[in-house]
Design brief:
213 residues; mainly alpha; Tetracycline Repressor, domain 2; flat
């Protein structure tokens, strides 16, 4: 990626017409997230990426909180919700989850932001997941529990990966055996294992729910 050089002179807000577009701002913010992670995203860092004065972004975005809302919406844009006739509920759910995972892997650290902001900016996506679960026959109570489980994993898994790097040298025997595979937690193996386990668990819960009614 070509980043603005350190000695590049700031310009007035925008390009030839003197204005920045929201799309330019969001794309610049996403570039910062992709390269440096979301923790490094700030209004000052954004201004350097855009090649403008430090105050210029404030003409278009009130603060970092509003910027993060825009980034969240843009980062998860383009996710296609499968139609009801495009497979079983398990297949349609997996299609949605796989797309979310793909977006999160493109933007490191964004899961932490989405953990808190999903309910503010991504209600349509949450609704699509819940609709699949309702179509499968889950009760409203179990739909909420199922979504909360998926939400916690998809957007909170980086906390597990980061914490695992702080393990002490001398570990109990079983923990030592297992942690030899610690690298799997940030790769596809952990993702496949967890999603397949979640869906298999949901299938079991659905049978249990139906047998108790």
């Amino acid at each position: 990626m070509n980043q603005p050089s350190a000695d590049r002179a700031p310009r007035a807000p925008g390009g030839a017409n003197g204005s920045l577009s929201e799309a330019e701002i969001v794309e610049a913010a996403l570039r910062v997230v992709r390269v440096d992670g979301v923790d490094k995203l700030s209004m000052r860092r954004l201004s350097r990426e855009l090649g403008v004065s430090p105050m210029a972004p404030y003409y278009y975005v009130a603060d970092k909180s509003e910027l993060l809302d825009l980034v969240v919406s843009a980062a998860l844009s383009g996710i296609r919700v499968p139609d009801p006739d495009e497979g079983t509920w398990q297949e349609r759910l997996r299609t949605l989850i796989d797309q979310i995972d793909h977006k999160l892997r493109k933007h490191p650290g964004l899961g932490e932001v989405l953990m808190e902001r999903m309910l503010r900016k991504q209600l349509d996506l949450i609704d699509a997941i819940m609709e699949i679960l309702f179509d499968a026959g889950f009760s409203a109570r179990n739909v909420l529990a199922a979504y909360a489980t998926m939400h916690t994993y998809l957007f909170g898994r980086s906390r597990v990966t980061n914490t695992s790097r702080e393990l002490p040298q001398d570990l109990p025997k079983s923990l030592e055996r297992a942690t030899k595979h610690m690298a799997d937690l940030s790769g596809k193996y952990f993702y496949q294992f967890t999603v397949e386990t979640m869906i298999a668990g949901l299938e079991t819960q659905l049978v249990r729910q139906q047998s108790s009614t």
